[in-house]
Amino acid sequence: MARQRRQYAASSIYHVMLRGVNRDAVFLEDEDYEHFLSALDTVKAASGCKVLAYCLMPNHVHLVLRTSDEPIGTVVKRLGVRYVWWFNQKYGRVGHLFQDRFRSKPVESDAYLITLLRYIWDNPVEAGLSRTPDEYRWSSRRLVGGRSSLIDWDALMAILPDSFLDDVAHAAPLDLDARAAARPGRRPRYTGAEVLELVRVVCGTEDSSDFARLDRRRQQRAIRELRTRSVPYEQISAATGLSRAMVIRLQAGNSDLREGVA
Question: What is the pLDDT of residue 130?
Answer without folding.
Answer: 84
